[in-house]
UniProtKB/TrEMBL annotation:
Organism: Neobacillus cucumis
Pfam families with a match to the protein in the record: DUF2292 (PF10055)
Protein name from the UniProt record: DUF2292 domain-containing protein
InterPro entries: DUF2292
Amino acid sequence: MDQERTKVILEALKNIEYGSLTITIHDGAITQIDRTEKTRFELRRSSAKNQRV
């Protein structure tokens, strides 16, 4: 594997908190790397909605 491609893969893995990394291979060679990152927010509800009667 080429060092440049290895570096790109490792950096993508190191810098992602939530998401996925897809490596596309054609004829035994890496041709594409897709990184999908998700940003998650904590759900905040008002106290009136959380109370049940």
